[in-house]
Specification:
Number of strands: 36
Distance between the termini: 41 Å
CATH superfamily: TonB-dependent receptor, beta-barrel domain
Helix content: under 10%
Number of domains: 1
Strand content: over 45%
Structural class: mainly beta
CATH architecture: Beta Barrel
Length: 749
């Protein structure tokens, strides 16, 4: 693999040097007006964005989405992960293991978990191919390099990677700054949080050559005990924009060492100020917590983009991408059985020793690479046709090591106790089109996707052997928009999405108990009005699942508890939002989601510790786990002071945002004692900026998070069992920080 990487680097830089030395000078193609569908072709400065636009919906497209600009992002960027920037968008809830938004964070859209949300960076999938989640901690300070984000709710448009069931997060870092710029960002705050970041853009030379880069360092102690984070990242881009083509190479690297805070805290600790931050990770070690109970991981992304404009109405792009990740999490284990690690018992002084304290590391070493292509053709001003697709290969090596044992019976240091490799191939091709006829916009999207997963798992005889599962999916989508005026439209769409089970569903089951793929039909219909002073949105959605995978607690034929298919379930909801410019100096906004999230027939299994068997409970029309029926966001933005005089200008902006989230259940049984209480919080942000001719621009930001110092939890888990004829439930809750502060200074040269 190292040889392959070196070869890729060599070819890339040869191509770049050839283009720089022998390419034509830049001569921008005049931009065309944007339309309601996928957007007309743009100037050569933004030609890179075909990879981004390929998976986005246009301004009046018949799907539900929200766009965030660079200004929206940077005004509230203090080094927290991407989910915490999206926290006040419709139907979004977020969580943080450390309670601060730095370290391990997660996001849900319409109650749908992160493994069913498709995330892409410039069109390249970011979801892990096996677990299907996105680990934002591996890309620290990514927001400092982001130009804009589109969040689609529901199935969304066709994109690379696994199909979406809850939403699509499409991140763009590929806009080219036409002029030189140097930006330094420093921030600090509660829990010993601090960040330093340097970001530069060379601008475009006369030959269209550019370079961009960023380095960042973030450290935080976390709100939860020992939930520290030590994060480093770098971003670098080099390329050339020519008369009809562009070439760009992006390198994104991240390193993270975070102390584990995955366990949550018991419910009985929540109301105690001192115990509320308790962290059980590492506490198995006698005397004091294990100092290295950490997650330690590095990830590097290398993306090469080439785009060519065949004519004013035809553009094509191709992307080569490669991602390498390697790291481990370490755990101190007390009194573990030797047999769990394939180690024979040891005899000492005539006594047979079968257990010992030990330290283990579980490793993941993976490679992900592929090719993506897109071509957009506009036969007329009123129509657009697009063809795209990609082929991706993931190879993941999973292995575990015992690096220390109190009593080590003849094993070497770093003894490897398991080792297996999985390969996943993903191919898809899609065709999209839209056509504008009078006041109607017709839109369609057809995708074929093939997935081939090769792994080591159990066969029907419960032997651990190589296995292979190949799946073929067809995902059609269609929609219609009707324009009531130049500012208003109504729309409707229907989309089908299919997706495969994840790694654990495969490796901890046999072919007989293996779950089936999931399918969802998503219907959206709504109204949009966007004018200078007011923006209104109203959307109805229905997400009907067939064979949705949910945890039931049942032990399968290989003795594992994994997810099972439930035949019928659905999410039904209304999303409404308004933003109103009341005065020149201020605006207000609000959005709310009302929903029902139900499983029609649900079998729940609990372990009976008295008998060694399982008890079965039956639930009808029960609410899905971690799916609130009400999410409300509200706030105001005030331009408190703005001035311009002579060669200087400045201002003070104030931004107040709040969120309310109703009760969420920790499992699918809808039991109130096993739930997260409703919560609400307020965030207040001040932004003071100063600009003076021939001087650097200064921006001083100050944030008060959770202004009212509410105690609340955003995530949790539970395990129910029967013991001595009593039903018991173990729980873990993830509390978020009380009132806390962040201050940031940005200097732009």
């Amino acid at each position: 693999m190292q040889y392959t990487v070196n070869l890729v680097f060599t070819v890339v830089f040869l191509v770049l040097n050839f283009s720089i030395l022998y390419g034509s000078t830049m001569d921008s193609i005049p931009p065309h007006a944007d339309r309601s569908g996928m957007g007309m072709l743009e100037s050569s400065i933004e030609i890179d964005e075909i990879q981004v636009r390929a998976s986005r919906i246009g301004e009046a497209g018949p799907m539900t989405y929200t766009n965030l600009s660079a200004e929206d992002i940077q005004n509230r960027n203090y080094g927290q992960d991407v989910p915490f920037l999206l926290n006040h968008l419709p139907s979004v809830t977020v969580t943080s293991d450390a309670g601060t938004g730095i370290g391990y964070t997660g996001i849900r859209i319409r109650g749908v978990d992160p493994t069913r949300i498709n995330v892409s960076l410039n069109g390249v999938p970011l979801n892990d191919s096996e677990s299907q989640g996105v680990f934002w901690v591996n890309m620290p300070d990514l927001l400092s390099s982001v130009d804009d984000i589109q969040i689609q709710r529901g199935v969304g448009t066709s994109a690379m990677g696994a199909n979406a069931f809850g939403g699509v997060i499409n991140i763009n870092t590929n806009r080219v700054a036409p002029e030189f710029k140097l930006i330094t960002d420093f921030s600090a705050g509660s829990f010993n949080t601090r960040r330093a970041s340097v970001n530069f853009s060379s601008g475009l030379s006369e030959k269209g050559i550019f370079a961009e880069g960023r380095i960042s360092r973030i450290k935080s102690d976390g709100f939860v005990d020992r939930a520290t984070a030590d994060l480093t990242s770098a971003f670098f881009a080099i390329g050339r924009v020519g008369e009809r083509s562009s070439l760009r190479l992006n390198l994104l690297h991240g390193e993270e060492v975070t102390y584990q805070a995955w366990n949550g805290i018991p419910k009985s600790f929540l109301d105690d100020k001192d115990l509320r931050t308790f962290n059980s990770a590492g506490m198995n070690r006698p005397g004091s917590p294990h100092p290295n109970e950490v997650d330690d991981y590095q990830q590097t992304h290398l993306h090469l983009y080439y785009n060519f404009q065949h004519s004013p109405n035809w553009e094509s792009g191709i992307t080569l991408h490669y991602t390498h990740g390697k790291g481990f999490f370490e755990q101190y284990r007390s009194n573990d059985r030797y047999s769990s690690y394939g180690i024979e018992a040891v005899e000492i002084g005539g006594e047979t020793i079968t257990r010992t304290d030990l330290i283990r590391r579980r490793w993941l070493d993976n490679d992900f690479y592929g090719l993506i292509f897109n071509t957009v053709y506009q036969p007329t001003f009123n129509s657009t046709l697009q063809l795209g697709g990609g082929w991706n290969h993931y190879s993941g090596a999973h292995f575990g090591e015992v690096i220390w044992a109190r009593i080590a019976p003849g094993i070497e240091n770093d003894f490897r106790y398991y080792d297996n490799v999985a390969d996943k191939y993903d191919f898809n091709i899609f065709a999209k089109g839209d056509y504008r006829w009078n006041d109607f916009l017709f839109w369609g999207d057809l995708q074929y996707r093939m997935v081939d997963y090769q792994y080591i798992g159990f066969n029907r005889d419960l032997e651990f052997v190589d296995q292979d599962d190949r799946m073929n999916f067809f995902n059609p989508k269609a929609g219609l928009s009707y324009f009531l005026s130049s500012n208003s439209n109504i729309y409707a769409s229907v989309a089908v999405s299919n997706r495969e089970p994840n790694r654990r569903d495969y490796t901890e089951s046999s072919p007989e108990s293996r779950p089936k793929p999931e399918q969802m039909v998503n219907i959206e219909t709504g109204f949009r009005h966007r004018a200078e002073k007011i923006a209104l949105e109203l959307n109805f959605y229905y997400m009907s699942y067939r064979d949705q995978l949910v945890p039931t607690g049942r032990i399968n034929d290989v003795g594992a508890v994994v997810r099972e298919n439930v035949e019928n379930s659905y999410r039904l909801g209304i999303e409404a939002g308004v933003r109103w410019q009341l005065f020149e100096w201020g605006s207000v906004f609000a959005n709310t989601t009302l929903s029902r999230n139900k499983i029609e027939d649900y079998l729940f299994f609990i372990d009976n510790w008295d008998t060694g068997g399982q008890e079965e409970w039956i639930f009808k029309n029960t609410t899905m786990a971690l799916s609130p029926s009400l999410i409300a966001n509200y706030g105001m933005a005030i331009n408190a002071v703005h001035w311009t005089g002579g060669n200087h200008s400045g201002g003070l902006d104030i931004d107040l945002r709040g969120q309310y989230v109703s009760r969420q259940y920790l499992d699918n049984t809808e039991r109130k004692f096993n739930s997260l209480d409703p919560y609400n919080f307020l965030d207040l942000n001040f932004s003071l900026f100063l600009n003076r001719q021939n001087w650097p621009g200064l921006s001083l930001n100050f944030a008060i998070r959770n202004l009212t110092d509410n105690w609340y939890e955003t995530n949790g888990w539970s395990y129910s069992y029967q013991f001595e004829n009593e039903m018991l439930t173990d729980q873990g809750y993830f509390p978020q920080a009380g009132r806390n502060f962040l201050v940031g200074l940005r200097v732009v040269w």
